[in-house]
Amino acid sequence: MAQSSAVTPKALAKWLAELPEFANSDQWGIGGSCLLLQLNLVSHCRDLDLVCTEAEFPQLFAALGARLPQLEVSKHPRFCSDYFARFQHDSGIEIELMAGIKVLQQDAVSCWLFEPEHLWFDEQLPWMSARQWLELYRLFGRTSSASLLQAYCQSRGMTVD
Fold this sequence. Notes:
single chain
């Protein structure tokens, strides 16, 4: 994908979805602020958050690493996922790829399981469910984003805890 000021996280997701490693996999999905934008809950996003299964992580990691520079990831005191990597497109957009998500909460590790069967597709892209990211935002302590998704889910009759 050529450098362009018109590159958006969603355009970058479409490019990734066409790469053989991503196109041949149904074990990854788009979440984070890009999902919030897709659901019309925010007006913009600056990065691209991808979640995949632990089994799929090495293949998708290699695909990204062959095409984009990897950014250094500092150890975080709370986030302790089994797999996490950050890449940067030459447009400046960062892509985070994660699997085996774990967060330290009150001296205990909370694990979150990605379930690809809950993905939904729009514009030929695999989107994570609003409920999945509501769970993740709560786990990450992102209360304002969690509130947006909770209101979205409730407005559509989805039960949320």
